[in-house]
Structures are given as C-alpha cells and as structure tokens.
Amino acid sequence: MSITKKATVFAVGLGLVTLSACGSSDSGSDSAEAGGKTVTLVSHNSWAVSKGVLAAFEKQSGYQVKVLEDGDAGQAVNKAILTKDNPQGDVFFGVDNTLLSRALDNDLFQSYEAKGSDLILPEFRVDQDKHRVTPVDTGDICVNYDKAYFSEHKLAPPTSYDDLIKPAYKNLLVTENASTSSPGLGFLLGTAAKYGDEGWQDYWKKLKANGVKVVDGWEQAYNEEFSGSAGGKKAKADRPLVVSYASSPPAEVIYADPKPTSAPTGVAAGTCFRQVEYAGLLNNAQNTEGGKALLDFLLTKTFQDDMPLNMFVYPVREDAQVPEEFTKYGPQAENPETLDPAKIADNRDDWVKSWTSLVLK
User: Once rounded to an integer, what is the mean pLDDT over residues 245-258?
Assistant: First the structure.
C-alpha cells in the first residue's frame, strides 16, 4: 500500500512510529552461523514484517534476510534498473502496476513461479506466460480528509475528483510528485482513467488553479503537510486533504494512544485508484536459490496474514485474513479507477512528462 501500499514510509502514532522499522533484519543469527547464507531484498521504504515471522522463515530456510531500502517506489525502481547488470540484491519488492511495464521492458527480473501462486486471487495475476513477477499485496490510492477540519468549517468533505476542483476546496489538497512517487503517479493515472486521454490535462489545469500543492513523496505529504495525521498535527500542517491510501485511517486508529473510537481521517471514495505491488527475482542475482525461497515466503499464509498490520495493504492470497480494523476503518474501494497495464505502458511516460509541464512549471 507501497503504497504503496501503497508504497513509502508510513509514520503514525506521534509522528515517530515507522512501520518500516524492520528495514534491516538482525534476526536469524542461528542461520548465519550455520551457513553464513544471506538473501538480500531490495525495496522501497515501506517494507515491514513482524520480527517473529521473519525469524521463523530464516530458521526454516537457513537464509538470513538483509533488506536494502531505496526511497519511494519510483526512485527504487529507477535505481534497480540502473544497477540491473550488478544488482544490489536478489529480490526486488515494491514495483506496482503503475511502473511494472518499465521494469519488465528493462529485463529487470528472471522467470520464477513462486510456490503458492495458484492461491493468488485471479484478478491480481499478471505475466502468466513468463512468471517474472509475483503479486504480493494490493491497496487503493485515494484522497484522505481530516474529519475535524471539515466539521469545524461546516464543510462537507469531497467525495469525488470533480469535487476537488470546486472553489470550496481551494488550497486544501496536497499530493505527491507523479514523476518520483508511487501514490502521486497513481493519483495521476486515476484522473487519466476518469477523464480519458482528452480530459485529464484540462482537469489538472483546474486542479492547479484551485491551489493543489505538490511535494516530493508520501512521507512529506502525509506526515508534514496533512493536518489529519498524527505527524501532521505535530508539524502544525495546514492541508486537510492528501493523496494517500484507503488503509491510512486504520493506521491512525491502531497507533494512536489513547485509541479513538473512530478514525480521525476519512477517504473520498470517488478518488481511488487500485494499486497492486509485485516482487521478482532479479536478473544477475548472486543468490538465486535464496531469492526463490524468499519469494515463496512472501506468498505463505503466515506472511500474507502478517502483512496488513505491518505495511497497511491488503493480501492477494485468497485464504489470507483481513484484520477487523481494515474492514471497519479502511475498507477497499467498491469502484476504484483502473487502467489496463498495456495502456499504462503505452502512455505513462508521456502522461508524466505532460503532467510535469502542466503542474510543476
């Protein structure tokens, strides 16, 4: 939900709790002593797993997991492509459907069908002829709103893309740079899906005129600019609308102390774009067998059940359990915008270039 989900650092609580704190594993010393085998996972900053779950995998497999985090999803994918001949690791996690074609076109991954692939929900399966990537999680990129702000100002929160360009919401929205940030790109693609090839640019002209603010990445947008998040409150943020995830409100409840009876933030259900994240075995990986074992682990029911409350994304395995907090505070969008992967591949770079000229210049 690197999401994006996804996809990025997800800091909540007092603005100090970081879900990707497990970025480099120190567990698995027994396996290190037994064989000194290390498998390296390259990821964006949102990777997280419970220590006990990871330790059990390391003990069972004999591999010690090392995690290298490379910033936001867009930055991480670009770096992986630049270093593909001499990759930093064995497995890459966090390429999503907005960037997948770029990774595949650059031959980033080698073929491997992970164990448990038959249990992935059919709507998330891709590249079935070559199995270069394995679906791991899904989530919805959506505009979140600060409930307190809209209550205090006696203003109904927006519910759609159309609402965001109305004068009532002028200077209220912050989003991420579509050229560097996965949620920022997802939001752009959502508008392209909604308004089509001929209409999305006009929409963004109106959104810019209505005072949208653009920052580099999700962490800055959510934890420094958004008034509804715990981090934003601490930073005295003044934007009550932010591009984030449908699963952001549950995090605000789970990591609050004391816990509120309802989420302090809400989701504008008509602004959502469905994101799916994948992992793959990198070409030229030094530890191919370890990489395969790690990909198998990402599809186990143990990991899929553990993942939602660590990375705040939904599992893709059909028998995985969704936490009660998700269904109560952050259900998936009923009718999210989607785009065919081929259309994204054909248009993404041109859309981002046009978006940059329209919004940033």
Answer: 92
pLDDT digits 0-9 by tens, 117-139:
999 999 999 999 999 999 999 99
In 3D, which of 95, 75, 176 has the Cα closest to residue 137? 95
Residue 149 half-sphere exposure toward CB, CA atoms < 13 A: 23
Give the integer Cα–Cα distance in Å for 217 and 332.
23
Strand partners, 243: 143
What pTM does this model have? 0.83
| Inter-CA distances, 36 with 26, 32, 87, 149, Å | 13, 4, 20, 54
Query: Which tokens sit at 360?
Result: 């940033």
Facing residues of 280 across strands? 92
Whole-angstrom distance, CA of residue 325 vs CA of residue 287: 38
Q: Read off the pLDDT of residues 48-86 as tens digits, 9 standing for 90 and up.
A: 999 999 999 999 999 999 999 987 778 889 899 999 999
Find residue 145's DSSP bridge partners: 241, 266
- 232 versus 255: the higher-pLDDT residue is 232
Non-local CB neighbours of 288 within 8 Å, separated by 6+ positions: 90, 110, 281
Beta strands in the chain (DSSP E): 11-12, 17-18, 38-43, 64-69, 91-96, 109-110, 134-146, 173-176, 213-215, 241-245, 265-267, 273-282, 314-315
C-alpha distances out from residue 185 to 49, 106, 235, 316, Å:
25, 19, 25, 22
Peptide bond preceding 258 in cis form (omega within 30 of 0): yes
Per DSSP, the three-state class of 210 is coil
Kindly give the interhelix angle for 182-209 and 73-82, rounded to the nearest 10 degrees: 120
Q: What is the DSSP string of 67-92?
A: EEE-SSHHHHHHHHHHTTTS-SSSEE
Partners of 337 in beta bridges = 273
CB atoms near residue 135 (< 10 Å)? 24
Long-range Cβ pairs for the range 331-334 (8 Å, 24+): 331/246, 332/138, 332/139, 332/140, 332/246, 333/140, 333/142, 333/246, 333/267, 333/269, 333/272, 333/274, 334/269
Q: How far is the C-alpha of 4 from the C-alpha of 167, rounded, in Å?
A: 30
